[in-house]
Amino acid sequence: MSPMATQRDYYEILGVAKSAAPEEIKKAYRKAAAANHPDRNPGDAEAVERFKAAAEAFDVLGDTEKRALYDRYGHDAFSRGGRQPGFNDVNDIFGAFGDIFGNLFGGTPRGGGSRAMRGDSLRCGIRLDLKQAAFGCTQVVEIDRNELCATCDGSGAKPGSKAEKCAYCGGRGQKIQSQGFFSMQITCPACRGAGEIVRDKCSKCSGSGRESKRIKLDVKVPAGVDNGMQLCLRGEGEPGDRGGPRGDLFCDIEVAEHPLFQRHGQDLVCTVPLSFPQAALGTELDVPLLDGRHHLVIAAGTQAGDIVRLRGKGMPDPHSRRRGDLLVQIVVEVPRNISPRQEELLRELAEIEKKDVSAHQKSFIEKIKDYFATDESADKQP
Ligand SMILES: [Zn+2]
Ligand SMILES: [Zn+2]
To answer: Which of 107, 167, 335, 372 is the most buried (most CB within 10 A)?
Structure first.
């Protein structure tokens, strides 16, 4: 970046007043960094420049001493050491302001020093049937995961050789660079922040210290899980850099549909078909449960759509373990094909019903009459 071209006022870059409080400056920088973050603007060179400019401005205004100097001398305060304050590499920004990015982007800062860094998290899926979801189970998941290279034990150096401490930064991974009245910390360009340099690379992992392995893990699934839930296995992600802790493994739960039960949260719905005589006369039948069966007495005169609630026969709540209900929903089926004898009996039944119309049917017939009457008179109006 050309120093002269970016001599814009630091307050102007961050869009804050000269009197802005430190918190305000920090907030403005976070906003600018988030908007122009290289991860969110892939291939946008202008965004990277804005990202760098905001970092440069914050490097000065975010520090009480540097800000005081800037307020007094302007950009001149920092031009005496020959080098402008600024960041050549985006990773230097992450190194310098890692703590801000840490909670801004929910991840670990990239680059930046030889301190240990937590490994990346991994994701996998677990498919269950409804019974497994209801009662819990142990599932085996297979994932591809980086492990420390067994040949070099993760060092990246050929067996028998050792990684050497980086002479340029003395093994710290950071370099102090003087600029005018103050000095700034940057990621060591010689070792890229690792603090050490591998001369004889391990042939197995080409110096990365990692090798991808397919591993199997037993995952204990608690009772009551549902679609879209996620289990987190702490410390089962990728290994961290420089001895940092492993990331986590997130397992997405997917529960397959069941042929008999529909799930509504903790409740299950099971549809039970009855014939017209069964519904009219009442009957007894076994309804399926997740574990076994339940003998159900259907009362005479049961209507289509009636629901029988079996308390505590649904899915357990994963937190409270309290179980929901099983709702038995009655449907009355009309036969598609009937025998001549069935037809004979149904016609006989229809004859009786014509003479002996139920109260419900009677009121329906009255309503229909009224409806047609008003409808027809409305039609006659001009
Ligand atoms: Zn190796
Ligand atoms: Zn170094």
So the answer is: 107
